[in-house]
Amino acid sequence: MSALGRINLVVSLLFVLVTLAGLALLLRQASHDVQRELQAAEAVVEYLGEVARNNPGSLRPELTDNLRHIRVSWLRPGEQPRAQRKSLVERWIAERLLGSTTLVSDAWPLADGRELQIALDPFDEIEEIQDSLLQLLLLSAFALILSLLTIRFAVRRARRVLDVLLAGLRQVGAGHF
């Protein structure tokens, strides 16, 4: 393997190590953030549960559609909540951050025969974490490519200087012997 190849390999390995360390730190911080967000959302779920027990008609879909970390479903008799489609990466992140944590979910019957189901939904936060992980990977890849190109440029310039110097030494050596 050439010297340039060895340098590129060492630099690439260092970038991989730094990127993996960054990913590990990001996931660790994300775990704390998700837990805090879900604890706050649990309080909202409990409040919505109180409202649902006392006056379920006061909770209307247009008031609960845009809640973060909470999924409110208005189910007809026998209907199941919509299954959320999550990517493989989002499910992997959720497993790493939540483990076997059971998410709060409650249901209340409504006067019109429907059922109101309120559940914690961490996937808003997980999408943000996925975006952060992707940004870190893209930044690392960009920095690695830029570093390898810079090394290649510097080595080529240095080789040109050495080639000129070597040619000059050969001329000097040929003239004395």
What does this structure look like?
This protein is mainly alpha-helical. Helices cover 68% and strands 10% of the residues. The chain has a 3-stranded antiparallel beta sheet with strand order 1-3-2, with helices on one face.
Number of DSSP-assigned strands: 3
Mean pLDDT: 84
Q: Write down the Rg.
A: 30 Å
List low-confidence stretches: none
Helix share of residues? 55-70%
Note the main attributes of this structure.
single chain; 177 residues; mainly alpha; 4 helices; 10% strand
Write a compact overview of the structure shown.
By secondary structure, the protein is mainly α. Helix content is about 70%, strand content about 10%.
In terms of topology, how is this protein built?
Elements: H1 3-54, H2 61-64, E1 70-75, H3 88-98, E2 105-109, E3 115-120, H4 123-176
Antiparallel strand pairs: 1-3, 2-3
Helix pairs in contact: 1-3, 1-4, 3-4
